[in-house]
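This part of the workshop introduces the protein records we will be handling. Backbone structure tokens are a discrete shorthand for how the chain folds in space. Once this layout is familiar, the rest of the handout is easier to follow. The record below serves as our worked example for the rest of this section.
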Amino acid sequence: MLALAPWLPGCVVVPETPLPSEEPAAPIPEIGTLAAYATVRAVDARSRIVMLTTSSGGMLDMTLQDGRNLGRLRPGMPVIAEYDATGRARIASTDIDGQRVAPNRIRGVLVEVQRGGEYLVVAGQERVPLTVAVPSPAMMAFATRLGPGDDIAVSFLSP
């Protein structure tokens, strides 16, 4: 039909304009660690299980591979429960005000867990949501036990 347009009276040929090129989507950053700020509910030293309450009120249990610090954990103690990319779980105590964050971590609030823990949406200090990829099955399982509003920290595998 366009080829006939110049022959039709009153028709103007409009050259095709290329569609704007789509910007390639920025890659979703992968996290190297996922940490949740929580409070110890109970400790079972024999099985190395620590029962925790997250900042949103959710409850989770962690089985630690290394029981060295279990003797120091007490009910009511604020802690950081963390999984790394290798699937290793660890629990560290926080500073008195509960604000300890390692220099390579970004602290924020969990907005959403997506696709079975494969992705997280985290709102950082500026409360701008950021989607991050969770590379480890152990971290994914941990992520699915967290809920919106949980106070978390993530570190990235690459800058």
